[in-house]
């Protein structure tokens, strides 16, 4: 039996994970238990700084006694729970969800999606070319970041980050219903005319690259974006005295984007416009 510690638990709950007895802290989710145990569960709408949205359904697992599969990102562990993360049922569900997403969305800049599809044998092309999303023009209405909604999977992470979970700007939300649902500013106004404060926290949580730095977008367009050639250096923002941590992503001696460590007790991955985008002057030599 393996004992897995997550944080400082008050009480441990015993469960069975893929045939192995595991003890996890009370209140932990199935995904927490899997992550601590070293089991990789695909996730798209889950964010470690956000409340689970349960939107993408890629992380579904099988719980004995449950009629349906359950989302591992939000389902809390219960005493005696028996979980299967790689059963035939979960593999079939994961394959179908990835195929539907891949047939209707451009996932070319989504990290790890190719290996997930390969692992479960997903083939989005079997739905035919007529199932593909109608091409949407890339929106470039400001010099800081780009919106490419052809890559959007409607995971709501950007809405949550912009809303009451972090920024409280409420500049973007979900417009339309059903198949017409889309991420939009209020009244579909250009971003500079909206309530956006350009904190870029929506970019930080976007799992597919639907939101990206203007510099990253430009380098991808001209074929020079190369993450394998990039270095990452974490430092402290100098614009004010808050002490936010910045991670500088540098390629060819040029800062191409700035992120923030999610484990930082100051920022939790979030920044303001100065921390996120205020580095262009470094390039003006």
UniProtKB/TrEMBL annotation:
PROSITE patterns to which the protein is assigned, alphabetical: 2FE2S_FER_2 (PS51085), 4FE4S_FER_1 (PS00198), 4FE4S_FER_2 (PS51379), 4FE4S_MOW_BIS_MGD (PS51669), MOLYBDOPTERIN_PROK_1 (PS00551)
Limits of the 4Fe-4S Mo/W bis-MGD-type domain: 230-285
GO terms assigned for molecular function: 4 iron, 4 sulfur cluster binding; metal ion binding; oxidoreductase activity
Domain 4Fe-4S ferredoxin-type: 142-162, 188-216
Domain 2Fe-2S ferredoxin-type: 11-89
Keywords per UniProt: 4Fe-4S, Iron, Iron-sulfur, Metal-binding, Repeat
InterPro entries, per the entry: 2Fe-2S_ferredoxin-like_sf (IPR036010), 2Fe-2S_ferredoxin-type (IPR001041), 4Fe4S_Fe-S-bd (IPR017896), 4Fe4S_Fe_S_CS (IPR017900), Mopterin_OxRdtase_4Fe-4S_dom (IPR006963), MopterinOxRdtase_cofactor_BS (IPR027467), NADH_UbQ_OxRdtase_ferredoxin (IPR054351), PSI_iron-sulfur_center (IPR050157)
PANTHER family for the chain: HYDROGENASE SUBUNIT, PHOTOSYSTEM I IRON-SULFUR CENTER-RELATED
Protein name: NADH dehydrogenase
Source species of the chain: Lentzea aerocolonigenes (Lechevalieria aerocolonigenes)
Classification lineage: Bacteria, Bacillati, Actinomycetota, Actinomycetes, Pseudonocardiales
């Amino acid at each position: 039996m393996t004992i897995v510690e997550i944080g400082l638990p008050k009480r441990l709950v015993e469960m069975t994970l893929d045939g192995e007895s595991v003890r996890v802290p009370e209140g932990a989710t199935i995904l927490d238990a899997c992550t601590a145990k070293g089991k990789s569960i695909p996730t798209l709408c889950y964010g470690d700084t956000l409340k689970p949205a349960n939107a993408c359904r890629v992380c579904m697992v099988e719980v004995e006694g449950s009629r349906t599969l359950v989302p591992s990102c939000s389902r809390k562990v219960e005493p005696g729970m028996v979980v299967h993360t790689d059963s035939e049922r979960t593999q079939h569900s994961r394959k179908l969800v990835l195929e539907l997403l891949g047939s209707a969305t451009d996932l070319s800049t989504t990290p790890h999606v190719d290996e997930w599809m390969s692992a479960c044998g997903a083939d989005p092309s079997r739905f035919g070319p007529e199932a593909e999303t109608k091409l949407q023009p890339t929106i470039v209405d400001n010099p800081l970041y780009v919106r490419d909604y052809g890559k959007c999977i409607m995971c709501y992470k950007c809405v949550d980050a912009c809303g009451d979970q972090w920024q409280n700007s409420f500049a973007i939300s979900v417009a339309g219903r059903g198949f017409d649902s889309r991420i939009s500013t209020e009244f579909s106004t250009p971003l500079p005319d909206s309530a956006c404060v350009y904190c870029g926290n929506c970019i930080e949580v976007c799992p597919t690259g639907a939101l990206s730095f203007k510099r990253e977008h430009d380098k991808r367009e001209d074929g020079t974006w190369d993450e394998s050639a990039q270095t990452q250096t974490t430092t402290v923002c100098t614009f004010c005295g808050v002490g936010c941590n910045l991670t500088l992503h540098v390629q060819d001696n040029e800062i191409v984007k700035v992120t923030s460590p999610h484990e930082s007790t100051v920022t939790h991955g979030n920044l303001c416009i100065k921390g996120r985008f205020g580095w262009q002057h470094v390039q003006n030599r």
